[in-house]
Structures are given as C-alpha cells and as structure tokens.
C-alpha cells in the first residue's frame, strides 16, 4: 500500500456507520455482489448496482489490493420460468441469452469483468450440500419435498435489517404456505411442479429457493468468511437477512466484515423496477446516449443516495463527458510533438510551472481523500477534476507562451483521476463509435 494513502473508510450497513476498511487477509480482498435474475434486459437499477461496485473494485485495485470479485447470475427462478412459458423457450436457454445481454451492457458501461460469475444451474451440488448441512444442524425441515428454513431457531435473525421476527412477513418471492411452522420461514428447496425444470435431490426432484444460491456460491468461492457483500438496498430484507441466517446455520463461524448497499434509481421519486413498470432498460438509454454518459449520470450521486432519473440529468452528463474527452483530445493534440520526440534536440530539461504543480497536487489530494471517504464520486466529478480541466483549457489558449511539459503531466493526472471512476479508452475511440452509441451529435460516427 502507498504510505501516504488515506485510510479507506466504507459505510457498513450492519453497523450503520463508516468503518476503517481492514481485510481478513492482508493485501487481499474477497467480495461478493448479488447479480441479476436473467429473464429480461437489465434496467437502470441494475446498472447502478454494477457501476457502484465496479467503482469499488477499481478503487481497491488502485490501492494495490489483490481482489477476488464474485458476482452471480440467477438463472433458475420463478420469474425466468414464467417468462419462458410465455415465450415458449427453454428456461435455461432464455436466462443464458439474457446473461449474455447483461454482459454486453456491462461492457458498454466499461465495467470490469468480475473474477468469477457463477450461475445457479452450475452449482446445484454446492447448494444441495449446504441445505443438507443446515438440516443436519437442526435449522431446516422438509415437508412434501419442500425444505424450509426455521427462522425462529436463528437467535440473531433481523440483525441486518433491524426487523423483529414477530413483525416479519414472508419474502416477496415466497407465497404464504400453511405448512410452514412460522410465517417467515422461507424455502431452501422447492419440490418440482409439472412443466418446470427440476433436479434430483435427497428430498425429491425440485430446484433451489432464491436465497440459498448466494450463501452457497459465496462460500464456494470465498469460504464462509469474507470481506465485502454488496447489492442494492432493496436486498437487505429479505434476501441478505436470509443469507446471513442460512450461512450461520451451515457454519456458525460464517462472517461478512462489511455489508454494502447502493441506493435506488427512482423515476419521479418512485423506485424504478420491472414490477412497477416504470423502468428504462440500459439498452434504451445507450441507444440515445453514449454509455459513458450513462455511467457519469450513475456516479453523479453518492452510491448510497437515491438517484432520480431525468432527461435533463442525462443531458448534463452527456455534456460533461463530451467536455472531458474534448479537453483530453485537445491536450493530446497539443503535446503530440513532445510525444513524438520533436523536442529531443532541446537540451534544457522542461520544468513544470508552479500553477500546474498546485493544480496537480490539489487533484491528487482531493481524489485520495474523497475516494477514501466511502467513495465520494460526486465530489471528484465536480471539484478538482473540473478545475484541472479548466486549467488545461486555459493553458491551451496560451499555447505559444506556455511550457509543453505542463500539458503532458496534467493530461496524465486527469487521465488517472478519471480512470478510477470510469475507464478512459484510447482518446480517438470516443470519436469512432457506432452510430447507436452517441454522447451527443458531436460524438456520432462521421
């Protein structure tokens, strides 16, 4: 780690406060993030979760950590089966198609690929083994081929969400079942129904419940003890609460150090979701705006804050992205003679002037301090980075009387700052994108 690096603090949903980040294994980070249920094109809520944790992934890399980043795909689920029945497709074929579409969207948004992307259908043995262990430990029961988790046997149930057991309801994906011993008991395994995909198990043919998959797959790749578990704020209850209960039932030593949750994307201040029908898919937005404009919009608010969708906000982000890349392009054009060695015959070593030094220092300090304070991306986008861009543009206007080197160094610093909050591709690529991926008309393919 860099000696002068500020202590990295992140907000832990479990303690409800910022904490100094310390890993279980020095120099290494183990991180699991809940992915999408693949039955349709992903919407802006999914994009925000992916970009938020991509920011975290990038910054941890910037801090020189070795990271194992696991993000799952749910490819066995009620919603997938329902959609497959509507379209006449095989459920796994349908979910596989939308997994591919999701990955295409992530590539557009410049999100780095996680270390592992496990799918439920490929981890049935791990899931069944964990259920077997939970039953053996006395925390689950079988009824007619279904297996339910007994929530009243978990002494700390509700520790993440703060919901009392007596006030809990069944999860949103779980229908009320009179066979349950407690209304909040949830399914670990569902008995097979006619026309649905199923797998053999000790309790008869069936398929996993929703929650068990993440407990099993996180344990498979990260063990029962790991550093970060992330997802959208809507997953705190029941999904993450049930994950904690399941993992504890399978292994009392299970522990996640930091629970991190991103805020909702709203539309007219109402949560954007497929069930409400008020959502926009990532693809719908990137057909009109450059994907980096969407990425900029998604990080223009702090990751834990609500983010209200609006055309004007996207337009502002589109303008901001164009300004950044136009400045970098102008700067590259200005320093190209130096980059090509045209100034090698100058014997005097160029010096950076004091104004450029101060600008670079401010950009560096603000980036380190604000990103280390629970990833304050809005401050980065509107603070010293903007000042640095303005400094470059002002200096370019004074090109004939300025030193070449101040452009080169400042250009490098702007690139470094922006690269940790969004990948900066080769500059000319921004001008050579397909006509579908526009930032504004100025960035369309000519």
From TrEMBL:
The tRNA synthetases class I catalytic domain, residue ranges: 22-317
Domain of life: Eukaryota
GO BP, sorted A to Z: cysteinyl-tRNA aminoacylation
InterPro entries, per database record: Cys-tRNA-ligase, Cys-tRNA/MSH_ligase, Rossmann-like_a/b/a_fold, tRNA-synt_1_cat_dom
Keyword terms, alphabetized: Aminoacyl-tRNA synthetase, ATP-binding, Ligase, Metal-binding, Nucleotide-binding, Protein biosynthesis, Zinc
Enzyme Commission number(s) from the entry: 6.1.1.16
Gene3D superfamilies: Cysteine-tRNA ligase, C-terminal anti-codon recognition domain, HUPs
Annotated GO MF terms: ATP binding; cysteine-tRNA ligase activity; metal ion binding
First-level EC class: ligase
Essential cofactor(s): Zn(2+)
GO cellular component, one term: cytoplasm
Pfam families in the cross-refs: tRNA-synt_1e (PF01406)
Family statement: Belongs to the class-I aminoacyl-tRNA synthetase family.
Xref: PANTHER family: CYSTEINE--TRNA LIGASE 1, CYTOPLASMIC-RELATED (PTHR10890:SF26), CYSTEINYL-TRNA SYNTHETASE (PTHR10890)
Protein name, UniProt field: cysteine--tRNA ligase
Source species: Glycine soja
């Amino acid at each position: 780690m860099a000696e002068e690096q500020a202590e990295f603090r992140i907000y832990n949903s479990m303690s409800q406060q910022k904490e100094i980040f310390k890993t279980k294994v020095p120099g290494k980070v183990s991180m699991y993030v809940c992915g999408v249920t693949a039955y349709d094109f992903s919407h802006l809520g999914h994009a925000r979760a992916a970009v938020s944790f991509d920011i975290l992934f990038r910054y941890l890399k910037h801090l020189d950590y070795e990271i194992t980043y696991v993000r799952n795909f749910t490819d066995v689920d009620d919603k997938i089966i329902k959609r497959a029945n509507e379209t006449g497709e095989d459920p796994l074929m349908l979910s596989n198609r939308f997994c591919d579409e999701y990955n295409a969207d992530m590539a557009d948004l410049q999100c780095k690929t996680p270390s592992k992307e496990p799918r439920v259908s490929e981890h049935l043995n791990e899931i069944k083994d964990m259920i077997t262990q939970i039953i053996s430990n006395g925390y689950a029961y079988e009824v007619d081929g279904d297996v339910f988790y007994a929530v009243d046997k978990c002494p700390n149930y509700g520790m993440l969400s703060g919901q009392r057991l007596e006030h809990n309801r069944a999860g949103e994906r779980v229908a009320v079942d009179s066979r349950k011993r407690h209304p909040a008991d949830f399914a670990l395994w569902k008995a097979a129904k006619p026309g649905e995909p199923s797998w053999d198990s000790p309790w008869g043919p069936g398929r996993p419940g929703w929650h068990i998959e993440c407990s099993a797959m996180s344990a498979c790749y990260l063990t029962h003890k790991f550093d970060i578990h992330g997802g959208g704020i809507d997953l705190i209850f029941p999904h993450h609460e049930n994950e904690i209960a399941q993992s504890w039932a399978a292994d009392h030593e299970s522990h996640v150090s930091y629970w991190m949750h991103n805020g909702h994307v709203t539309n007219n201040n109402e949560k954007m979701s497929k069930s409400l029908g008020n959502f926009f898919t990532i693809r719908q937005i990137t057909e009109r705006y450059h994907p980096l404009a969407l990425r900029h919009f998604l990080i223009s608010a702090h990751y834990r804050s609500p983010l209200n969708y609006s055309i004007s906000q996207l337009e502002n982000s589109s303008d901001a992205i164009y300004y950044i890349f136009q400045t970098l392009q102008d700067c590259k054009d200005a320093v190209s003679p130096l980059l090509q060695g045209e100034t090698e015959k100058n014997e005097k070593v160029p010096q950076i002037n004091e104004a450029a030094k101060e600008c670079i220092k401010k950009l560096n300090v603000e980036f380190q301090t604000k990103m280390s304070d629970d990833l304050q991306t809005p401050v980065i986008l509107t603070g010293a980075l903007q000042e640095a861009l303005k400094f470059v543009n002002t200096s370019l206007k004074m090109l004939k009387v300025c030193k070449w080197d101040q452009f080169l160094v400042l250009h490098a610093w702007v690139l470094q700052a922006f690269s940790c909050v969004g990948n900066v591709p080769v500059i000319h690529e921004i001008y050579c994108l397909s006509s579908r991926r526009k930032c504004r008309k100025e960035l369309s393919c000519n």
